[in-house]
Amino acid sequence: MDDLREKYLKAISGAADEAALEDLRVAAVGKKGEVSLQMRELGRMTPEERQVAGPKLNALKDEINSALSAKKAALEDAALDERLRGEWLDVTLPGRDRRLGTVHPVSQVTEEVSAILADMGFAVAEGPQVEDDWHNFDALNIPSHHPARTEMDTFYMARGEGDNRPPHVLRTHTSPVQIRTMQAQGAPLRVIAPGRVYRADYDQTHTPMFHQVEGLAVDKDISMANLKWVLEEFFSAFFGTSVKTRFRASHFPFTEPSAEVDIQCSWEGGTVKVGEGDGWLEVLGSGMVHPKVLEAGGIDPVEWQGFAFGMGIDRMAMLKYGIPDLRAFFDSDLRWLRHYGFSSLAVPTLHGGL
Ligand code: DAH
Question: Per the domain annotation, does 95 fall within a domain?
Answer without folding.
Answer: no
